[in-house]
Amino acid sequence: MTLVLSTVRPGLEDLVTGVRSVVDLHTDWRETARLVAAELRQHMPTPDVLTAEERIGDPDRYVSHTLYVERGGAFSVVGLVWRPGQVTPIHDHVTWCVFGVLQGVEHEELYVQQDDHLLRVGVNDNHVGEVSGFAPPGDIHRVRNVGDGVSISLHIYGTDISRIESSVRRCYDLPVRD
After folding, report:
1. 11, 100, 103, 152: which could join 131 in a potential S-S bond, CB 3.0 to 4.6 Å?
2. What is the rounded distance in angstroms from the CA atom of residue 111 to the CA atom of residue 118?
């Protein structure tokens, strides 16, 4: 059974309206990510868009909270909560994605695949208020909380995340070269 969260949480109303207007343009994924990133910059919520309980996180892994799913599945808004040191595997995505940091610092490593290995091509420390967006192909990365406290980010995906459970298309287990 698919859980559809079509009621907009307080603090997300203007963002959801803006993202809906961008998605309704039906541009390519890169342009959609660029335009959705502009909407997130303009309508960045505060960490309290998540409940106090949701903001605690989990000691064993980073946690994803689906906050909104557009009817028809055109996009989803998800809050991710990371305790210190928690990290994703190196992965890519099934669709475009935009994220903004609401609390803490998230360290991102960017990669490209070259035959039998990954080449690290960039590193970003994303601080509160910073927004980034991307679209496949060329979206291989790993994210970790490098701070001493909980980090919270808001992610907007171009799909019904409650239906597919994750934005990750594939995880990479290849040697990494700099």
Report:
1. 100
2. 6
The answer to whether 109 touches 141, Cβ cutoff 8 Å, is yes
Amino acid at 16: V
Helix/strand/coil for 93: strand
Establish how many alpha carbons lie within 13 A of residue 172's alpha carbon, considering only the half-sphere containing its beta carbon.
Answer: 22
Instruction: Provide the token pair at 143.
Output: 């994210």
Assigned CATH topology for domain 13-177: Jelly Rolls (2.60.120)
Encoded amino acid at 175, one letter: P
Q: Residue ranges per domain, the chain?
A: 13-177
73-87 tens-digit pLDDT: 999 999 999 999 999
Strands (E), 49-150: 63-69, 76-82, 91-93, 97-103, 106-114, 117-126, 131-134, 140-145
CA distance 87 to 108: 10
Q: Give the residues of the chain that fall short of pLDDT 50.
A: 1-4
Residues 132, 124 contacting (CB under 8 angstroms) = yes
pLDDT (tens digit per residue) in 50-72? 999 999 999 999 999 999 999 99
> What is d(CA 37, CA 27) in angstroms, rounded to the nearest whole number?
14
Task: Calculate the alpha carbon distances from 117 to 94, 113, 120 in Å.
Answer: 21, 6, 10
- What is the identity of the amino acid at 94? V
